[in-house]
Each structure stands twice: as C-alpha cells, then as structure tokens.
Amino acid sequence: MVTQAQSPNIYLLVPIALMAALLGTAVIRGPNLVSPAGMGAAIIVAAPLILATYSLMVLAVAGRGTIDLAVGPLLAFINVVVVKLSTSGILISPIATFIVALGLGMLYQLAFALVVIYVRVQPIIVSLSGFLALTGINLVILKRPGGTAPSFMQDWGLGTTIFSPVLLILVLATAGWYLFTATTFYSNLKMTGYDERAAWTSGVKTEVVRIGAHLIAGVYVGLGAICYTALISSGDPTQGQNMTLTAVTALVLGGVALSGGRGGATGALLGAVTLWLIGYVLATFNFGAIQAFITQMIYGLILVASLLLTLLVPLIGRYISFVSPWSAFLVLGFVVIGIMLQVSTIGNYNEAGNLLVQQPLADRYFLVEPARTVDEGLAMTRVQVFALLTCVAAICFTVVARLMGSKAEKRRMGLFQYLFILSLLLALFIVIAFRPESAV
Amino acid sequence: MVDPNMPDTQTEKNFGHTKNNSERSSFAMLPIPQSRFVIWLNIALSLVVATIGFGVGFGEGYLSAQQIILFGVITAALLFLLLNYVAIIFEDRAAAAESETEAETENRLKRSRLLWRSNIIVVLSMSALLALYLLLTASIEEFRSIKNLIAFLVLELILLFAFKVSGYFASGRSAFIGLIVLGALIVISAFSIEGFLSAPNVRAILLFAAFLGIASVGQTMVALLGGLDLSIPFVIGAANIALLSLITAGVPSYVAFGFILVLGGIVGFLNGLISYRLQGQALMVTLGTGFAVAGFTQIMTSIGSKFAGNVFGVVPGWLSNLAAMNGRFFGMKFPPTIVIWIIIAIVMIVGLRMTSWGRNLYALGGNRGAAKLLGISELKYWVACYVISGVFAALTGALLLGWSGGAFIGVGDPYLFTTLAAVVIGGTSLLGGNGGYGFTVIGVLVLQVLTSFLLGIGLQYEWQQFIFGLLILPMVALYGRSPHIRATV
Residue A123: is it exposed, middle or buried by C-beta count within 10 angstroms (0-12/13-18/19+)? Predict the structure, then answer.
C-alpha cells in the first residue's frame, strides 16, 4: 500500500491552473506576446510588480499578519528620490543608484522592524502609518510625474529584447530567494512566522529573524523601484496606492498565507504574473471607454474569488492528493508552450498549407510541414529538422529522467521537471528569436 | 540579612546629624561650611565675580559709581551665601554617605535607578522636544515668537500629562490622551492661527468631522469584532455617483436616497458573508469587493452615457441643504449633517454600552469561544457589523454628493485610511473587544482639528498626510502596545 502524502505545496495548484488558462488565452488573443519585443515588454512591465510581491511575500512569511501596505508608496518613494537625484546630476553611476535604491528600501524596512519589535505596535498600524507618511512625502519631493531616470537606464525600458538587464535582476532576485531557502535562517523564518511563541521558546532569536526578513524585503523593494524607474524612465509619485493594491492581490493570488509561515518566490511569481496576465487579456478586449472600470471590477472579483479558493485548498488537497502541483505545472506548462509555439509560428509556416488546399489532411493541420519523400530521398527543411530534434531530445530526456528518478527511488522527479520545462522554453526562445529564413 | 549593629549605627548617625546642626546653629542664620578652605574659596570666588562686575560697570561709562558699588556688594554677598549653601548641601551629603550602611546605599541607588527608569521616556522625549525647539528657534528667524513659545510649553505639558497622569486611568487611557491632544491642538491653533475659532471655521471642522465620523461608524463596529473594512471608500464613491445617476434617471430623490442606503447594506452583507470564513483576511476581502463595487457602479452609470465615468445632473435642494456649508438647520446657520452625526454618535455610544446587542458585540470581540458558549451567534454579529458599515458608507457618499453638488467616484479616496486612522487614534483596538464609538469621535475630531491647523499654517495636503502618518505611531504606542512575547509564553 502506497501512502499518499499530500504535497506541502498544494496551494500552488490554484495559481498554476489560473496562470495556464490565462496564458493560453493571452497568447491566442494577443499573439504579439510571443515575440522578442512582446516578451521583453512583458518582462519589463511585470518586473516591478513581481519584485514588490516578493517583498510582501517575505514579510508575510515572517508572520504577525504583516502586510506592508506601504510597499507601493515606498517603491514610488525610492523611484522619486532616484529620479530627483539623477535629474539634479548627483546620481549618475549605476553602482551609486543601486546603493541608494537598496539602501533606502532597507533603511525603511529596518525602521519598520525596529518599531514592530521594540515599540510593539501591530505591523498593520506601522504599515498604515508608513503608507500615509510616504504617500505624503512623495508628493513633496516630486509634485507631478516627471524628471529623468539615470542615463544608464535609458535603454532598459525599451523592451525590444528578452534578455534585458531587467530580466537579469528578476532572475537574480528569484535565484537569490531559492538560495536563501537552503539556509537555516529560512527555516527559522518560517518557524517564526508559523508560530512565533514556539520559535521563541525553542531558542530562535525571533528579533534577529524579523529584522533579517525586513532587510530582505527592503532589498526586493529597492530592486523593484529600479525596475520601475527603468520602465517609466521618470519619476511618478502618484502610483504608490495602485501598486500596493495590485501587489497585495498578487500575493493572495499566489497562495501566500497572510497568517505567516507559508509562501515562497514560486507562489509570489505565479501570482504576480497571473495578475499581469489578467490585465493583458483584458486589454486585448476592446471595451472602449469603460475599459478601466472593467479592469477594476475584474481585479476585485479575482481577489475575492482567489481568497475564497484558499478555503477550498484543503478540500482539494484531500480529494486529489495524487495531483502534485509540479506535475500539474508540467502538464499545463507543456500545453501552454504548445499553444505558444502554435500561435507564434502559425503565420510563418502555414502559408504553403493555406494555398494548397488539396493537400492531404495531415499537411494542413500539422504545425510544421511534414517531411515528404521526394526523388532524392528524405528532404527536410531546417525547421523540420529542428522540430524533430527537439522532440526527440525532449522525449529522450524525459525517459532518462524518469528512469533515473525511479532508480533513485524518489517519489517526485523534482529537478528534472524544471529542466524539462526549461528545455521547452529554450526551444520556444530559439523559435522566436531565430526565425528561419525559409519561413519568410 | 539584618545587621544586629544597625540600630546603634542609626542612632549614632542621627546623633551626628544633630551635633552638626547644633554646631551650625551657633552661627545665627548664616549657612557656613565646616571646611576653612571652602570658606576662603567662596570668598575668593565672590570677590572675583564682584571685581569683574566692577570692571565691566565702570567700562560701560554711563552708570553712576554708587550704583556700581551697590550692585557689586550685593552680588558678592549673594554669591557668597549661595556658594556656601551649595557647599553645605554637598558636605551634608558626604557626611550622610559616610555614615550610611551598605543596605541603605543600595536602597537609595535602587530608588534613584527606578525613578530614572520609570521616567526615562518622559525625560528623553521632553528634552528631545526642547532640543528641537531650540534648534528651530536658533535657525529660523520667523520662528521666534511668543506664540511658538506658548505652543512649545503646552506641548511639554501635554507630554508630562500624558505620561504621568494617564497612568491613573485604568481604562479609557486613550480617550484621555486623545482629549488632551485635542485640547492642546485647539489651544495652539487658536493662538497661532487668525480666526481659527471663528464660526465658519468651526462649522467647517465640524462638517468634515461629521463626514469622517459617519464613515467611521462601520469601521469602529467592525474593528470591535477584530475585522477591517477597506471597502468604505469605494462604497462612498459608488454611492456618490449612483445616487446622482439615479436622480438624473428620474427616480424621486427620497426613494433614490433610500435605495442607495439599501444597496450599501447589500454590499456590506456580501462583505460580511464572504469574509466570515476568512476573518484574518478581512482586509483583502473588503478591498476586493470594494474594487468590484466601484468598477461595477461605474460600468452601470456609464451605460448609455457619452461621458464614461462622469455623471452630470442636478442635486436636489434638500440634499444640498443637508450637507452643504451654507445649509440651514431649522433656520440656524449650520448644516443638518452635523446634527445627524451627533444623533448617530449618541445612539452608537449609548447603544454599544446599554443594549444587550452592544454588550454581546464586545463579548464576541473579546473572546469568541466564551461568547459562543453564551449562545451569541458569531455569524449574525459579524455580518450585521458589515451591513452597518456598508449603510453608513453609502450615507456618507450620499451626503458628500449634497456637499459637493457633483458626483465623482474618487470622492471616497481620502477615506481609505483616514477612517482606520480615526479608529486607531481614538483607541479602539484592531484586535477587537476594546474601544467604542466615543473613542472614534475623539479620533475624528483630533484628525479634523489637526487638518484645519495644518491648513491654517499653510501646509499642503501632502504634508498633512505625512504628518498624519507620523502621528499615528506615537499615539498608538502610548496605549496600544502588545505584550512582549516573553509575557505570552
């Protein structure tokens, strides 16, 4: 009898399913997304939200119901300060900019932590206080949107390529979190968040843990502010409130427990991307003048619905314990990437098919032209070779991985699934970035 | 550890004291130290100072010699007396320390340490304020005025009061502090702002306090149960535009007004129902419903309208009279909204204190489990609180329509956190079970008077917000601190 252990990450099922559905819709509705420019723009637009959500996530994991309502105003504050300094010519070099941005974020969060620990006021009140104070001071520093970002950022926000510095920041931030999860500090943090009294009695220095969590959150806010500055290439003191509301929604969507102790970069990332996708999909429908209201309403409904879904998570976990979030991620990721490949290549490879209607059925419905035997033997285009090789490689890889997994008697394949998805993503990027000349 | 020799030493010390005193009394009234050296030192010091005085006095040139000599002698004599007096105190203390036992020393040290520790915050904050005042006075020319000096002294007094007197109030400490702050704010504003206590200004303060107060009714009720309602600003905005669009569509204005209140109640009902199982996340739930309501209302009002999001129409006269600045209440020159607020406040305060419904609410907020055992339905009270919150938010929105005369969805935005701030500053705990609407009234008044004060001294909205933000923390820190984790294990 095999014991069916429930995955601890069952809460990720909801955001994964939601994101797959949305990504599919997004790609079909707006095929522009699957192109270097589309992807690049998407990454740059979503990056500040993702990083702000990370920041919220760290604090949520630290417990005591810490939701830093001030995350948006803080982000805007750093943005405004950086822009103000760079406009007046003080802040030019990238290193100084990063130091200022991260330093401000960490300084604010350190103050937050110290107040929570030593003054012992509820975090929600501290964050409320910070929200009001920072919103006010932002408008004092910069009356209206304007100014110029540091010159080295000018071309970051163009979003013409996928591999921009913003992506690098995002990848580093995410990887940093996963590295962090390997440390003892992380387990202490989770324990503190889950039950602070138990952690304290078992000798965890909860004060130090809390300060550490806040400092990490400060770093994420600083990075988010840099991405935001790069995105809008100027300063904007007014968007703090919106950013807070969106980031909090993303946090909830990603299944991070607001009561503490549960959550991670995966959930936060999924939540933020899902939320961004909702906006993208809604933007592809043309509602005319009431577009903004519909977006607002849908955001609200999604927030409520995802909160209600968190009630269902234990139920889901009880009845479908055989579905691990990772396998769901694998299957849905496969489907979505298939859709993306189809959408991105349909214009390129189907022209011939569309012209020759009398071709066999298989020709019309395959993604790439099937290889045809001609007189000189088996002739294939470069695209076909590539597609074939990719498929073979992927299948081989999966089989090998599966074998290794079963040999190692592991219940889950863990890393291999990531690698599998990664190879598929790589294939997608190659298809997008290096369109074969035969297709044109 | 009782020292058997202790009584002996005690008497000896006492005896020593009397001996000293008797010796000294022979020198009539003059306090003279025992050490010869100190006497001579004092004489020398007095003479030196007197000589300096002589020199300066003659150097000035326009004073008569008699005056200089008179003042010189008086200075020397007074200084000599004063120095002697100080020297005696030190001598006495040294003598006492010599004859003191170890236990007594410890006791005295402990007492002084305790005194220091219990007053450290007062001393530190008062001296910080003093430093700030001196810094400002030294650096800013315009700051040196009698008004500012009075304001500074009042602030110092408040600090002293807040720390020393509030300890005697077992409950309602926050109300006491709030009242002191309110009083001080009014005093300072009246001194430093021209026409602060004039009728129009007081009317304006009370009117805006009424809007905020009515909007905070629901927030207080919900906070008493340990929840939060962030949908209030969105409901206010939605009610604002929905009411005008209903009236423009031809619905009789009284009916529309009632209908809007019902709609607000329905939104509150949904809020309560959805957040009941998600009480920890009430903040998020209400935010979500608020978004949805605001979006939905805007969609509904812009159907068939060329101007999306904007509603144009004429506000009926009775509604304008109800809330506008120039409104009349039975011929008296203030808008009826203020009276409405006062009635609501009285009903709320009395209702929460006297009725069983109110007591049950406190019971639930204080301890869910115990209240449940008493047969109090948690669901019923939770939902009812949110319904009340929705109704009052809608009422605020409708009144604001009368005040401004034009509909605008963003009219509720300032109330997103100010309702919360008013509740928190008043002293209602967000954890539930503690506080009441009376506290919120104080919080609302503090916020409004402060706003008026800041406006009066010429600060813009953004500075006001900044100061509000910084104000909340110390206010809450004075009474709303949670226990150290050590105390909860």
Answer: buried
Q: Is residue A10 part of a domain?
A: no
Q: Does A138 touch chain B (CB under 8 A)?
A: yes
Closest approach of A120 to chain B, Cα-based (Å): 5
Residues A248 and A187 in one domain: yes
Please indicate if any CB of chain B lies within 8 Å of the CB of A127. Answer: no
- A 206-235: CB under 8 A from B: 206
Largest CA distance in chain A: 85
Residues of the domain holding A263: 34-312
Which helix (H) or strand (E) segment holds residue A252: the answer is helix A240-253
- CB A128 to CB B417 under 8 A? yes
Least Cα separation, residue B412 to chain A (angstroms): 14
| A440 has pLDDT over 50 | no
Q: Which of residues 255-284 of A touch B (CB under 8 A)?
A: 258-259
**Pair (A270, A390) in one structural domain:** no
Provide the whole-model pTM. Answer: 0.72
- Hey, is the C-beta of A132 within 8 angstroms of any chain B C-beta? yes
Tokens of A19: 């994101």
Longest dimension (CA), chain B: 106
Q: Is A128 on the interface with B (CB under 8 A)?
A: yes
Q: Is A304 in contact with B289 (Cβ distance < 8 A)? A: yes
A138/B462 Cβ within 8 A: yes
Q: Give Cα A237 to chain centroid, integer Å.
A: 24
Within-domain flag for A358: yes
ipTM of the complex: 0.71
Query: Of B178, B154, B201, whose CA–CA distance to B444 is shortest?
Result: B178
Tell me the three state secondary structure of residue B222: helix
Q: How many CB atoms lie within 10 A of CB B75?
A: 16
pLDDT confidence bin for A52, thresholds 50/70/90: very high
* A355 lies in some domain: yes
Q: What structural domains and CATH numbers belong to chain B?
A: 6-100 (no CATH), 119-183 (no CATH), 193-488 (1.10.3470)
Report, as an integer, the average pLDDT of B251-278.
Answer: 90
* Closest residue in chain B to residue A134, using alpha carbons only: B466
3-class secondary structure, A7: coil
The three-state secondary structure class of B405 is: coil
Asked if residue A124 lies in contact with residue B223, where contact means CB atoms within 8 angstroms, the answer is no
Interface probe, candidates A246, A303, A306, A308, chain B, greatest B C-beta count within 10 A: A303
